[in-house]
Amino acid sequence: MQPIIDRFISYVTIDTESDSKSNTTPSTSKQWDLANKLVAELKTIGMQEVTIDDKAYIMATLPSNVDHEVPTIGFISHFDTSPDFSGANVKPQIITNYDGQDIVLNAEKNIVLSPSYFKDLLQYKGQTLITTDGTTLLGADDKAGITEIVTAMEYLINHPEIKHGKIRIGFTPDEEIGRGAHHFDVAKFGAEWAYTMDGSQIGELEYENFNAAGATITFKGKSVHPGYAKGKMINSMLIANDFINALPKGETPQETKGYEGFFHVHHLTGGIEETVLELIIRDHSKKKFEKRKELIEKITRKLNKKYAKQFGEDIVIAEIDDQYYNMKEKVVPVKHIVDIAAKAMNDVAIKPIIKPIRGGTDGCQLSYMGLPCPNIFAGGHNFHGKYEYVPVESMEKAVEVIVKIAELTSQPNYGLPVSKKKK
Ligand SMILES: [Zn+2]
To answer: How many angstroms is it from 347 CA to the middle of ligand 1?
Structure first.
């Protein structure tokens, strides 16, 4: 257990917070600190074709050790941490044989990680937890994923009796600001499919996510002295209000779950002359997603028609931009890649938890770039904040899952029942 703890701690104590306001890649130069260390470590453990490009994307190869042809597969994670909470001076605390009680993260500041609020903690009774000291995030998202991939590769190198095909691994910067896949060279990676090790609790296996778009709606108005405004003033704020009221009731993030989509109004600024409304649109179903975008256009047309006589030009302008799509469309045609991961989990006594993601992953972008890429648990909880923690046993299980996937992929029918094999 100690080597995996040491490896994880050596990563999380290097600050790699990304920054969405930066235009460079990586967005913060400190991400190089960990990137360069990872390159050296991959070479030390015996990985081959270890490369880092000018944007800090790392790739490496574990060559096949079988004679027959096996598809090349990949494992991917990101080394930046979320700008939502400080990632500087992380001081991990190790709680051995967790007793199911409150964990005092910081006595001085009275910060407590309590199972009465974070009920998931109770399933890790008796295990070893790594937590923060209450002043930073931990960075298990996604340095747990990196720890697991490196440890699994080292294990396979040291156990040549385990048969596997060619494995590619990829570590990216800037996932937390939505850019992890942007400069990922899928052709250079050269895998038939891959897995991001970037999920949360043990057992998670995800291959469905939202289709996503963002809309900026601009409302124009006409300011006139209120005493003389009758029939002349157009108050853009009130038109924005009409727009919001025309959105379907009950379809907001706080009123939906599972496969239910939503409109989420997240920004509104304005005065009489101009109001700008920003919202996001989310739906797992491509059809419903398109319908939602059409509704935005429809409401826009209706309001423009209503004010056409008075204003003489369109007073509502809607700009809609697609952000990402549901990877399901790209993964279902190669569903065996999910089945292999589920079988690998079952083989190492983990019950797969397969559920739709109410968000996106780098894997969904990669899937549309030609690299189908489901997401597997990395083991951590409470990402992006001071209550983040990871059970060491979950990281060890993730290592076993990676090793098992590598092994299954080299077997006839990927070790799956014949009926499940898809071509
Ligand atoms: Zn992550």
So the answer is: 25
Tell me, in angstroms, the distance from the centre of ligand 1 to residue 141's CA: 5
Q: How far is the centre of ligand 1, averaged over its atoms, from the C-alpha of 86 (Å)?
A: 15
251 in active site: no
pLDDT score recorded for residue 6: 98
| CB 326 within 8 Å of CB 286 | yes
Token couple for 417? 């029942």
Quick: pLDDT tens for 323-347.
999 999 999 999 999 999 999 999 9
383 CA → ligand 1 middle, Å: 8
Is the same domain home to 197 and 242? no
> Is the backbone peptide bond immediately before 142 cis, with ω within 30 degrees of 0?
yes
Measured CA to CA, the distance from residue 286 to residue 326 in angstroms comes to 8
Q: What angle do CA 73, 51, 142 make, to 5 degrees?
A: 65
Centre of ligand 1 from the C-alpha of residue 266, in Å? 23
**Strand 193-199 with 375-377, pairing:** parallel
My answer on whether 335 and 246 are in the same domain is no
Domain count, the chain: 2
Is the confidence at residue 167, as pLDDT, over 90? yes
290 and 370 assigned to the same domain? no
- Single out the residue in 296, 324, 352 at which a domain terminates: 324
Mean pLDDT of the chain: 96
Burial class of residue 131 (count of CB atoms within 10 Å of its CB; 0-12, 13-18, 19+):
buried
Options 15, 17, 80, 283, the catalytic residue: 80
Q: Spot the catalytic one: 133, 141, 175, 283.
A: 175
Residue 375 lies in domain = 2-208+326-420
80 is catalytic: yes
Residues 141 and 202 in one domain: yes
Single pTM value for the model: 0.89
